[in-house]
Specification:
Elements: E1 3-8, E2 11-16, H1 23-28, E3 50-55, H2 65-71, E4 79-81, E5 91-94
Parallel strand pairs: 1-5
Antiparallel strand pairs: 1-2, 3-4, 3-5
């Protein structure tokens, strides 16, 4: 089971999720990382769930067209949309309030 480390506002939250989990779906049903993850549409249209990948990004699939459209140059800074990631490996993310 992937171990997810989530950083927000100087705090660190950690938990394990089932393989194939999506953090926005989990937050929507009030599981980890709820209530810490900011999100809105869950479909890659708003970019509210944008997070900077601190570690484990090399194991993620390449960004899809929704991430490319919403994040643009921020992809090069290591940002991804949490709603577009189905997790199979350990991952460390940071949601930066200014990036939302």
């Amino acid at each position: 089971m992937p171990r997810i480390t989530f950083h927000k506002n100087g705090q660190v939250f950690e938990d394990e999720v089932k393989s194939g989990a999506n953090l926005v779906v989990r937050a929507g049903i009030k599981q980890y990382p709820y209530p810490h993850l900011v999100y809105e549409c869950g479909m890659g249209k708003c970019a509210k769930c944008a997070c900077k990948v601190l570690s484990g990004g090399e194991l993620l699939p390449p960004p899809n067209w929704k991430e490319k459209k919403q994040l643009g140059a921020r992809l090069d800074e290591g940002f991804r949309l949490a709603c577009q990631l189905w997790l199979e490996h350990d991952l460390e993310l940071e949601q930066i309030p200014e990036s939302i």
